[in-house]
Design goal:
It holds the Pfam family Glutaminase. Homotetramer. The chain has 306 residues and is an alpha+beta fold. It is built from 13 helices and ten strands. Strands 3-2-9-8-7 form a five-stranded antiparallel β-sheet. It has a three-stranded antiparallel β-sheet with strand order 4-6-5. A hairpin with a 4-residue loop joins strand 7 and strand 8. The longest helix has 15 residues. It is globular, with a radius of gyration of 17 Å. The two termini are 17 Å apart. It binds 6-diazenyl-5-OXO-L-norleucine. The site of 6-diazenyl-5-OXO-L-norleucine has 12 residues, from loops.
Length: 306
């Protein structure tokens, strides 16, 4: 695949979406992002790295971090994830990422690990397994990307906490059903801390490439079995972009995870990790420019999981 040519075409298509969508502002600190920024990067399983535009510029990882918290919670669990999957489902929710409605009728067990409710449960289990859930995510991202400066942005974390009524409501509701092992305050603190990590397309493709390598880390060691990596990719495909997961599969055809910082990390199993970033979001909370760029890349190359 001629990645430099594909990235150039993807960037042109993404830049043509200028003006469409809105920068997230329900977390006030995110509203300061440059709406016209755009970057994209590819890391292949053979160690090649390509980028265009603002691919090395840090942005708020937000929900893309949920991919890593899930992977680590599964990797560290000693029962193949059985306990974790009792507390969180793996079905698309068809609802917005911060919705509360299904929890009430579904006994405090969130539909999947990528909606906010499910990610809170995953953060809770990772906290039980490691004693420092956000630190575990940060350390993994640093190691895989080789970027020792990668860190939580305290201003974004504080902004999330100050405006986190919905997440607090979700966490308390889940706790009322006995589905949290740690205090609500601890879970929220670590959840905000991993969502508020500042990272770039470059860092994210390097950190996400373990899924393209079927579970093998940058240093050649195995984080998880091939079957576990397949399972994460499957949940990414069906739930990673929330109530737009069908549309994302239709357009892009890859497992992927979006965040309200505007990043989308997608996996081409056996070949590469691809990340695109643009802060303007559509109604489902997915980046307009990033989804367009990924759509262009898979459409032009003919490479997807289908
Ligand atoms: O909890 C929140 O609302 C944010 N920290 C993360 C939400 C998010 O990124 C949803 N993704 N599109």
């Amino acid at each position: 695949m001629d990645y430099p040519v594909l990235l150039e075409a993807a960037e042109a298509a993404a830049r043509a979406t200028t003006g469409r969508g809105h920068v997230a502002d329900y977390i006030p600190a995110l509203a300061e992002a440059d709406p016209e920024a755009f970057g994209m990067a590819v890391a292949t399983v053979d160690g090649e790295l390509y980028g265009v535009g603002d691919w090395e510029q840090p942005f708020s990882v937000q929900s893309v971090s949920k991919l890593f918290s899930l992977a680590l919670a599964l990797a560290y669990s000693s029962d193949g994830g059985e306990e974790l999957w009792r507390g969180v489902g793996r079905e698309p929710s068809g609802n917005p990422f911060n919705s509360l409605v299904q929890l009430e009728t579904e006994h405090g067990i969130p539909r999947n690990p990528f909606i906010n409710a499910g990610a809170l449960v995953v953060t809770d289990r990772l906290q039980s397994l490691t004693g420092d859930a956000s630190g575990a995510v940060r350390e993994f991202l640093r190691r895989e990307s080789g970027n020792p400066l990668l860190d939580t942005d305290p201003v974004v974390a504080a902004s999330e906490a100050a405006h986190g009524h919905r997440n607090a409501a979700l966490a308390h509701f889940i706790a009322s059903h006995g589905n949290l092992q740690n205090p609500v305050e601890t879970v929220l603190e670590h959840y905000y801390a991993h969502c508020a990590i500042a990272t770039s397309c470059r860092d994210l493709v390097l950190a996400g490439a373990f899924l393209a390598r079927y579970g093998v880390r940058t240093d050649g060691t195995r984080l998880m079995t091939r079957s576990e990596a397949k399972r994460i990719n499957a949940v990414l495909l069906t739930c990673g972009t929330y109530d737009a997961a069908g549309e994302f599969a239709f357009r892009v055809g890859l497992p992927g995870k979006s965040g309200v910082g505007g990043g989308v990390l997608a996996i081409l199993p056996g070949r590469a990790a691809i990340c695109a970033w643009g802060p303007r979001l559509d109604q489902a909370g997915n980046s307009v420019a990033a989804v367009t760029a990924l759509d262009t890349l898979t459409t032009l190359s003919g490479c997807s999981v289908f």
